[in-house]
Design brief:
CATH topology: Metallo-beta-lactamase, Chain A
CATH superfamily: Ribonuclease Z/Hydroxyacylglutathione hydrolase-like
Helix content: 10-25%
Protein name: Metallo-beta-lactamase domain-containing protein
GO molecular function: transferase activity
Pfam families: Lactamase_B
InterPro entries: DHPS-like_MBL-fold, Metallo-B-lactamas, Metallo-beta-lactamase_dom, RibonucZ/Hydroxyglut_hydro
Organism: Formimonas warabiya
Radius of gyration: 17 Å
Structural class: alpha/beta
Shape: globular
């Protein structure tokens, strides 16, 4: 698998913004542009990505590949509108992406957090697999991530039914891996599999034991202190040089990374452009 010499990643949706006039929401979407094509990774929870893309001069009509990190509404809400704009786009996803899922918190009614329903024509765009899948020459999905390490109740309160009888382990969670001249870049959605399990899977798939950059949601907003510290130890173990926390990493997770991680911690707010030349 070759390295690509020019990759530009533009954050289109996140919980916070980097530039004025852009919008924020609880969600995640990032556009990856390369000389071999463009990839939209997740779509936020609404059509906000289109307004932000227009302001940032990102042409979504040229995107031929989309990847869903998992089937929660805050990562898939803009997908139907995106497919209406790009009816020929291939969407890479895990078989569980269409499952119904619910968030149930003490004292509150169940909340449906599933991917919005798509019509049959749009569902035909999907390339469904639980295995790693090549997206471009230098980019592939991890597929389903084995839970080798205990992730300490990271998915607490998530269920596949409104009664709360069937726990949702979010097995459709996957990451996107890019080979660049500077090294491996790992792009995550919410990391429901846990950072340790995700990076260990990437290491097994690539044969690499150190990574240049890890960015995206890390599901640390409600993590206990030992989980946060274990995440930092994992990043050090794989000699990660740069970390871009976003979305469900949460402010506390970002603060701990900034304080304990020895490498560079950078912003992944809406409008930030990450050059991987």
């Amino acid at each position: 698998m070759k390295n690509v010499k020019n990759i530009r990643a533009t954050v289109l949706v996140n919980n916070s913004v980097y530039l004025p006039n852009l919008g924020a929401e609880h969600g995640w979407s990032i556009l990856i542009e390369t000389g071999d094509g463009s990839i939209l990774f997740d779509t936020g929870q609404s059509d906000l990505l289109f307004r932000n893309a227009k302001i940032l001069n990102c042409d979504l009509e040229k995107v031929e590949k989309a990847v869903l990190s998992h089937g929660h509404y805050d990562h898939t809400g803009g997908l139907s509108s995106f497919l209406s704009l790009n009816p020929g786009t291939t969407v890479f996803a895990h078989p569980d992406v269409f499952k119904r899922r619910f968030s149930i918190k003490p004292g509150k009614l169940p909340r449906d957090i599933s991917m919005p329903v798509l019509d049959q024509k749009q569902q035909s765009n999907f390339y469904i697999t639980s295995q790693p899948a090549p997206v471009l020459d230098h980019v592939f999905t991890t597929g389903e991530i084995p839970r080798q390490f205990d992730i300490g109740g990271i998915n607490k309160g998530l269920f596949c039914d409104p009664e709360g009888k069937n726990t949702d382990s979010v097995w459709d969670d996957q990451a996107l891996v890019m080979h660049t001249p500077k090294g491996i870049v790992v792009l995550m959605g919410c990391c429901h599999a846990g950072v340790e399990n995700t990076l260990e899977t990437v290491a097994g798939l690539t044969g690499e034991k150190k990574f240049y950059m890890v960015l995206g949601g890390m599901h640390l907003s409600e993590a206990p202190e030992d989980r946060l510290q274990e995440t930092v130890r994992c990043l050090h173990r794989f000699q990660v040089q740069k970390v871009g926390p976003a979305h469900c990493t949460g402010w506390r997770g970002r603060e701990v990374l900034a304080r304990l991680f020895s490498g560079e911690v950078f912003s992944c707010d809406v409008g930030n452009v990450i050059q991987l030349n």
